Amino acid sequence: MTLEYATRYRSASRIPPEPGKPYFIEKGEGDRAHLFGDLITVYAGGEQTENTFNFFTVEGPKGDIIPAHVHADTYEVFYVTAGAVRLFVVDTEGEEQEKLLTPGDFGFVPKNCTHAYRMERHHSQVVGVAAGPGGTFERFFETLGAPTEQPGLPPEPVVPAPHKFGTVPHEYDVRFLPDHQWRTR
Taking CA 70 as the corner, what is the angle to CA 105 and CA 113, rounded to the nearest 5 degrees? Predict the structure, then answer.
């Protein structure tokens, strides 16, 4: 059994709302949101870590590339636990890179590097960790997407209205780059 707490983001969360309190979360029982075709589950966020890092999973089907974006103050880690995920990154010298990551593979994206990913196999899963001096961005997923109590993928993709993409950079350190075109496959 996992306890539920009320937070400023949700009426019921399995993540305690304050730092310094040990807790345990059963598989898949974190704060969930649907965004695009994916299910994002947050296990630890800024509230628990004094804005030093977050820990989340992204699960999804084989699909389209997510929009290119950049974090000005946040470093992001991609660790693939199931399926295959193609990570696209523009490095600090402006060179575009891509890498197919499979279970056990790791990708690191420094701050200020444009990046995106695409699930290459059905039932792919990425463990994500993000950290930086500007705080954490995990609440971006439910702000742009749709909070859910359901443990599975969305029945239909959750695609935000175009104007919503411009609402997240100031609070969550996520700036979308709608005109960016990847030169890769």
Answer: 60
User: In angstroms, rounded to a whole number, what is the distance separating the alpha carbons of residues 115 and 177?
Assistant: 10
Residue of higher predicted confidence among 171 and 109: 109
Collapsing DSSP states into helix, strand and coil, what is residue 56?
A: strand
- The model carries a pTM of 0.91
Among 2-16, 19-33, 124-138, 170-184, which is the least confidently predicted range? 2-16
- Which tokens is 160 given? 């935000």
Is residue 45 within 8 A of residue 57, CB to CB? The reply is no
- Specify whether the CB–CB gap between 143 and 172 falls below 8 A: yes
Measured CA angle at 164 (ends 161, 165), to 5 deg: 105
**% of the chain residues with pLDDT over 70:** 93
- Amino acid residing at 73: D
